[in-house]
Amino acid sequence: MGLVQEFSAYSNWRATLGENLERLRTWLAENELGDAQTDLRLQQLLERLREDKLIIAFVAEFSRGKSELINAVFFSEYGSRILPSSAGRTTMCPTELLFDEAKPPAIELLPIETRATHTAVSEYKRFPEEWRSFPLDIGSAESMQETLRRVGEQRRVSIEEAGRLGFAIDAEGEDGLKPDADGRVDIPAWRHAVINFPHPLLEQGLVILDTPGLNAIGAEPELTLSLLPSAHAVLFILGADTGVTQSDLAVWRDHVNGSRTRQKGRIAVLNKIDGLWDGLRSEREIDQEIAGQVTTCSQILELPADRIFPVSAQKGLVAKINGDEALLRRSRLPELERALSRELIPAKREIVCDNTEAEVGDVIGRTRRLLDARVGGVEEQLLELNDLRGKNEAVIEYMMRKVKQEKDDFEKGLQRFYAVRSVFSNLTNSLFTHLGLDALRDQTRRTREAMLAAMFSKGMRDAMTRYFENIRLNLRRSNDEINEIISMMEAMYARFSTEHGLELGAPVAFSLLRYEKEIGRLERVCNSQFNTFLNLVTHAQRNLTQRFFETIALQVRKIFEQANRDVDHWLRAIMAPLETQVREYQLQLKRRLESVKRIHQATDTLEERIRELTHMQAALEAQLAELNRIAGDLHRNLRAAEGLSGRDALAA
To answer: Would the pTM count as exceeding 0.70?
Structure first.
C-alpha cells in the first residue's frame, strides 16, 4: 500500500474513532452521567481529531526537482501537475498546501515588504487583510497552474533594500545573493504562500510545506524554529547530477539536522537518477553508480544509507499518470513511498492512539466508578429495606439514626474536602505565578532592557543566557508545585476512599517535561543562530535584539501559552472526580434517609420502594453493560493499527 492509500486509510480510521467518541459523549449526556468538565474534555478531543494534521516538509536548494517530487508523490491522480515544475526556480517563497473548508480555493500571498516590520508570519496569519488573495479555478488545470506560478515571482531591488529585508548579499554569490553589474539583486516578490486547494488528501488533513533554498530559510528563522520542527517528516532533496553541494550541506546542517535531537522523520532524496539512463551503460552499471552516490551522500550528511532514496520524480509522475508499471518501478518512487508509509503513518497513528486512550480511559474509568457507586448504593438500600420486612418501629428508628450518623460523619469529612480545595486553590495560584504569561512577559521585558543596555557583546550573550536560565527555573518551580498538588490529591483520594468507600482510582498525572525539552531545543537554536561571537559583532545591537524577540521569544511565548492551557485543563480534571464522587455520595445518603423516613411514616410503602430500587438496579446494570460495549468498540478501534502495543485501559 502506497503513502496516499495509507494516509486515506489513516483518515478513515480517524473518522471512525471520532464517531466512537461522539457516541460516548452523546450517551453520557442522554444518561446524565457526565458533567461539564467531562463534556469539555471529549469536545476538545473531538476537535483535536478533526483538526489533526499530517505535515510533510520538502526542503531543497533550487533546481533539485522538489516541486516535481511533490506532484509525483501526492498529486499524480489529478492527472496533471498541481505545482509549477520547470527548469529554473519555480518556488521562491515558503509555501503551504492545505485545505480549509471555511475558505474558498485560493492562493494567499504575503508581500515580501512585511519583513521590514519584523513581525513573524504566524502573527500575520491573524490579519487576512495583509495578504494578497488570488482565486483558484479548480475546474481548469491550465488556469490553476497559471495562478500558482505566482509563487515563483521575483522583484529586482537595490542591495540596500535587499539587506533591509533580511537577505544576505555576497559578491561571489556563495553565501548570499549576487548583485548584478548595476548593484541590484533579484528577491522573491512574496514572503509566504498558502494554497487552499480541495484535494482529497488535503481535505483529510495533509499539509505540505514547500521550502525553497538557503536564502529563503535563512531569512525566515520561523521556519527553523517552528515550521520545520513541527513537521512529521522532512524530505531533503538533492540532485543526482550535483550530489551534496556546499549550499545543500549548509541547509542540511543549519536548518534540517542542525540540533541532531531527532533524525526520525528526516529523509534524504537523491532525485533525477533518470539522468544516468543514457542508453550507454547497463542496468548493473547504473545501479552501481547510484549505490556509490548514496554511500557518498550518507557519509557527507552523516545519515544512514537506508534513509537516502534515489528516485526519478519526473519519470515516476509520468509513469503514474500513464499507468506504466515498468517505468514506475525503474523510477524507484514506490520505495520512497513505502518508507514514508512504514515510518510516518504508524507513528502518527500511535501518537493519536496514546493521547486518545489516556483521555478516554480516564473518562470511561470515572463513569464506570460512578455507576459502580450507584449500583453499590442501590444494593445497600435493598439490603437494608429487605432487612426491615416484618421489623417493628423501633428497628426502623434505629436505621434512621444510623443513616443520620453516616450523614453527620460525611459532613465532617466535607470540611476536610473544603480545606483541601482551599489549599488546592492556593497552590494553583502559586503555580501560575511561575508558569503564567504575566511572569513570562516580565522576564521578556527585563531581557529586552538588558540587551538594549548592553555595552559589549558579552552583555548581550549574558542577557540571552539568563533569559533561558530564568525560564528553566520557573518551569522547575512549576513542576515542584504540580508534584505537590498530585501528592495532596493522592492523599485526599485515598482518605475519602477509605473513610467513605468512594471509588476514585488515582489522580491524573501531569509533567512539564515536553515543554522543558522544547525550551531546550529553542536554546540550542538561539546559541547557534544568535548567541555567537560572529553574530554579535556583525549585526547591529538593536537589529539583533529585535530578531531575537520576533523569533526565539515569540516561540517561547507559544510554548508557555500551550503549557498554560494544558495545565488549566489538568487542574480541572484532577479535581473533577473527587467533586463528582462527593456529590454522588451526598445524593445516595439523602435518598437512603428519605427512604427510611417514608417507611417510618407509612409501612405499606416498603414493598413499593423495594420494587423501585430493583428496577433502578436493573437500569444501572444495563447502563454498565452499554458503557462496556462503547468502551470495547473504542478499544478495538484504537488497537486496530497493526503493530501497536496497546494498554487495556478502556476494556478494563
So the answer is: no
